[in-house]
Write a structure and sequence with these properties.
Length: 146
């Protein structure tokens, strides 16, 4: 079934788009299917809206995963990436993608939204952990841009 018009009459706000992107990026960790297949399955099964932002984030995280994960690993203190919960890792990846590649979203917004997602989908301590990693990455991004 063609999904190009599914969900067109629904307009998501950025927070809802970010939650939906989180679901897709998380799902991609466990599926070998293409992002397009995952979008189509979601649209057909759940009438999920796949906005341009969601598509950009899911495809962008996938395309830049090595760079994003390198940043995560470089900012871990006495910790290994494989010890990060899958949901927190997904949240970090989305926030870092936004921080690096979506210039119309302030870095502080990406960080705050990531912390809220971690508190809602992981735990309070994950929120603090995500905040610490992203704050550190934010400083390195700013110093690289100076």
């Amino acid at each position: 079934m063609e999904n190009s018009n599914i969900g067109e009459n629904k307009k998501l706000n950025r927070r809802e788009e970010r939650k939906t992107a989180l679901g897709f990026v998380f799902e991609r960790m466990f599926r070998d299917d293409s992002a397009e297949d995952v979008f189509e399955d979601a649209a057909n099964a759940r009438d999920t809206v796949v906005s341009d932002y969601i598509r950009k984030v899911v495809e962008g995280v996938e395309a830049n995963i090595d760079e994003i994960d390198t940043l995560i690993e470089a900012n871990l203190k006495n910790w290994k990436k494989n010890r990060i919960s899958k949901i927190s890792l997904t949240i970090l990846r989305i926030a870092i993608f936004e921080m690096l590649y979506i210039k119309d979203i302030p870095v502080s917004v990406s960080i705050n939204e990531a912390v809220e997602l971690a508190k809602n989908y992981a735990s309070e301590s994950d929120g603090s952990f995500v905040n610490g990693i992203l704050a550190s990455i934010s400083k390195s991004i700013k110093s690289d841009g100076d």
